[in-house]
Amino acid sequence: MLRFFYRPKEEKDMKKYFVVSDHHFYHKNIMVYENRPFDDLEHMTKELIKRHNSVVKKDDVVFFLGDISFTNKEKTKEIIEKMNGYKILIMGNHDRRNRNWHLDVGFSEVIKYPIIVKGYYILSHEPVYLNDKMPYVNIHGHMHGKSMSGGNYVNVSVEQIDYTPVNIEDIIERFKVD
User: Fold this and answer.
1) pTM exceeds 0.90
2) What pLDDT is recorded for position 9?
């Protein structure tokens, strides 16, 4: 199911839109599976927060495309509160807790299904398999170090984007048609 229109609740106050996926906070095995360049879980957490805040400002909007945390509510809340921006979670396959849990830890909005933004960009956790004639661009996570074949997919798993959220305008610029 796709939501075909999205407008943040406080759009007039928002500046930039960012996308990022698959933080996997406090998931020990992800460091091995994806060869993440961090000494330990604490180092990974601090560095992900630092890189996030290096580009995202207080009034910016951040779409987290799933798989945010593998730790308890208190620790997750502490992490999310340190991260700048109006935070929107599009739930991933590892976000098994209910919507209210994610709202309680600091997300402003929690969405269960992919959404379309700016009329052309599908934001989802897992790739949405598109017909090659479809005009949409799918910005997704889930695949970590792998990429989809075909030109209309952008993997924003942290491993693909130097562990730093990407400004959606940079993606839009890449797909501009003259």
Assistant:
1) no
2) 53
Query: Is residue 3 one of the residues assigned to a domain?
Result: no
**Cross-strand pairs, 49:** none
Q: Tens of pLDDT along 31-66?
A: 999 999 999 999 999 999 999 999 999 999 999 999
Q: Is residue 150 part of a domain?
A: yes
Is residue 113 included in any domain, yes or no? yes
Tell me which amino acid residue 47 is: E
- Residue 177: the pLDDT is 58
Give a three-class secondary structure readout of the chain. CCECCCCCCCHHHCCCEEEEECCCECCHHHHHHCCCCCCCHHHHHHHHHHHHHHHCCCCCEEEECCCCECCCHHHHHHHHHHCCCEEEEECCCCCCCCHHHHHHCCCCEEECCCEEECCCEEECCCCCCCCCCCCCEEEECCCCCCCCCCCCEEECEHHHCCCCCEEHHHHHHHCCCC
DSSP 8-state secondary structure symbol assigned to residue 54? H
Task: Report yes or no on 2 lying in a domain.
Answer: no
Tens digits of residue pLDDT in 66-116: 999 999 999 999 999 999 999 999 999 898 899 999 999 999 999 999 999
Domain with 45, as residue range(s), is: 13-174
The domain spanning residue 141 has which CATH number?
3.60.21.10
Domain count, the chain: 1
